[in-house]
Here is the input.
Amino acid sequence: MKNRFFDHGGDVFAAARDLGGRWTDLNDFSANVNPLGPPPGLKKHLWANFEVIRHYPDPFAAGWRSELAERFGLSPDRVLAGNGTTALMYLLARVLRPKRPVVVAPAFSEYERALAQAGVKVRRTACREEDDFEVTDQVVAGIFAGRPDLVFLANPTSPAGGLISPETLDLFFHQVKKSEALAVVDEAFLDFTPVPTLTPQVRLNPRLMVLKSLTKFYALPGLRLGYLAGPRPLVKKLLAGFEPWSVNALAQLAGSYCLNQEDYAARTRKLVTRERSRLAGRLAAAGLGPVIPGQANYLLIKVDRPGLTVNRLTSGLKSRGILVRDCASFQGLLRGYIRVAVKDRAANDHLVQAVKEVFRTG
Here is the structure.
């Protein structure tokens, strides 16, 4: 049974129960995970260290935090590891309790859900459909119209996948400084692009906090791992409100291993760049679209075909063992959109063929 309080991609187990089959038989385009799977050698590395589960994990992942800090030229007291970035979003909302937060929409629903659970009322600033949901200078002006004290901003944006231009980011941080707001920049999908992370800049910007996820780029959603970097006083405050043992021992080992896989990272970016363009072209040629251009490992698509609704399309694909994301749960996005992950060529071709079959059968 679907949980009405939770709507997210990647729930292959619920889909398998609905279909009466096995989750391993599903082709999941609803979660945007690296099509290469976890880095080569990770399974062997974890198995070789499997006995670590006989002990409590490092309660606050101090060892891995130190590795992350060294990687980005930071001190460890600027970094906090978490059981995925979603857990860190809830921690931020619960501990900081901002009074005038803004979410740049459309956006991941967990930003608002985390703030709502903390009893905080949220204001949205919406990107425009006619701009392909890009964060423009006009959007930046809207963000700071009400003098926010915290802003959630994703780069690349989700679900559209657009990268924020350097000029617009400069304007954004200029306004952050003037307003004294805290900017929480979610870079969950940035590693799929050639754009460098803002993480090292937290040394120089006391109003910046960066969220980073390993679950998407390193294909670890079932293990859960992420981190944030930010100003010392805020990280200290978050750490004081953090539950011990939140990051399990195997996840900490995986984090250390994954961040050293440079060849894997390069192959991932090359594959995603090539297949994203090809998949967008093939879906558009099949009659599904418009396809919103993006730079991440997913495509946002407006279902604009006579007689075809999002529900009919997603149900038709699901009956064929293919899951795609109905984007109705993204805050600030009008109904009528789906999002599909970019996978390897064989899987992408399977999706295109299934879409054509749905069109033929109505």
